[in-house]
């Protein structure tokens, strides 16, 4: 078993106004999982970089309101929304609400920087 306290996990600050906390990843989990899960906070009025991954992703929105853009589709998201994103789908998240947007992102197989392509 592995345990983490969100408030004690190292934060990474993205250029676009995101705060990322990598919760579980094969490199930091005792039981040898193959996926990764991270907690994201996207500041009010900000949007993440448009990107695509070689892995599939599931977004679970914890707090706030926004829009997720996947391929040519845009969906409004709110607390409780769950979105599956297939591999190699161009995507980004936009915070359209009046507070920070918080969500979990599960990546399978686990996120690797080499598998992420930033789209300009």
Q: What CATH architecture of the domain at 35-104 would you give?
A: Sandwich
CATH topology description of the domain at 35-104: Jelly Rolls
The parts where pLDDT drops under 50 for at least 5 residues are none
- Termini separation comes to 40 Å
How is this structure best described in words?
It is a single chain. By secondary structure, the chain is mostly beta strands. It has a domain at about 35-105: Jelly Rolls, CATH 2.60.120.10. It contains no helices and 11 strands. The chain has strands spanning about 10-15, 20-25, 35-40, 50-55, 55-65, 65-70, 75-80, 80-85, 90-95, 100-110, 115-120. Strands 1-2-3-10-5-8 form a 6-stranded antiparallel beta sheet, with no helix packed on it. It is globular, with a radius of gyration of 14 Å. The termini are far apart.
Summarize the structure.
Helix content is 0%, strand content 49%.
Task: Please describe the topology of this protein.
Elements: E1 12-13, E2 18-24, E3 36-42, E4 51-53, E5 56-63, E6 65-70, E7 73-78, E8 82-85, E9 91-95, E10 101-108, E11 116-118
Antiparallel strand pairs: 1-2, 2-3, 3-10, 4-11, 5-8, 5-10, 6-7, 6-9
Give the tags.
120 residues, mainly beta, Jelly Rolls, 3-stranded antiparallel sheet, 0% helix
